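Progress report, Aim 2. The chain analyzed during this reporting quarter is listed below.
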Amino acid sequence: METSKLQRIINWLIDGARSSGGPAEMIADVCEHLVEAGLPLWRFGIFIRTLHPEIFGRNFIWRQGKEVEVGTVDFEILDTPEFAQSPLRIVFEQGLEVRGRTDDPDSKRFPFLDDMRAEGVTDYVAMPMPFLDGSIHATSWTTRHPGGFSDDDIATIRAIMAPLARVSEIVSLRRTAAMLLDTYVGNRAGARILGGQIRRGHTDTMQAVIWLSDLRGFTALSDRLPAETVVEILNHYFDCQVASIREHGGEVLKFMGDGLLAVFPIDQYVGDTAHVCSRVLEAARASRASVDALAIPVGEVVERFRFGVALHVGSILYGNIGGGNRLDFTCIGPAVNLAARLEKIAGRVGRTVVASEGFANSCRQSWRELGEFPIAGFSQAQRVYGLAEEAPVVMA
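Predicted structure tokens for the chain:
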């Protein structure tokens, strides 16, 4: 490859590959530029490890004439025979370059290359892509060219690795930041923080449905079971709610011991309060069914669980609150306070789902008025509603 053509590609990467719209497009552009400059590339893969509790990494696969395939791999892959016999395992664990010419008998040690050989591949190179933090990521390069990659081709691939690594690291860091924010503060809050809403006092007023729930009998449970078992139970218990909340348009803002606070934003311009409340109630029913079905063996006993959730609709203040340089992205306001009080009432009356008068009026379901209750901090007693389908349960 001509030095000038290679240098133009390197300079383009160093400049941030600005003409590309995103990671997949950037990878396609890199590969196509290299092919135009003379590299006999047929397939390229880039594998980026992620900082995510469930996802080991992401992969992008480019083939000539096809769109880039984007996928994710979970941690279970580390225990598979395929990974144990993969060239990428050597790259990830040892940071070494691995080459496998398909006409070389030694390449038989990598079953993956049998698939490549069947597709007409003549040469394969896997190269480490180190980031500045010392983590090792990987790329793979294959060709169908007779005789495989030349020495000049390998030199070109090695020359492109450093600038490719820098751009990939920048993209990866931004995605990691977004994923961590999504994981720990929620997707909407994460997007706001990443967008620059980071100063204390940066808040917005939002109309929303508030969901506040907790696990019945949690204090007694914590007292009689080992802490590790309690954590396991809580994780399973929260799984029963989080999937339903997100599926129905909500965002989990925080976990507070066994408590969960979530919000379901209401579009003030569309005026979709009734629709949002209906979806929230669907999520509550789905969560109730999941918790009812939850059974965790602990020793010789199978633990079963009950929970309560309070639903209210109102105006909340949503944003950064805290002290010094330690902030929390959360929501506050009288509506949140009322939801918290209603959740306690749910436990007193033995109900799983209770709603405020405002929520019940917005969601025309089969509600039964449970009475008026004095609420601490509120000048007037509040009407509380329960689902007609539920019978009160007295907790032992």
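The mean pLDDT is 88. The radius of gyration is 28 Å. These observations will guide the mutagenesis work planned for the next reporting period.
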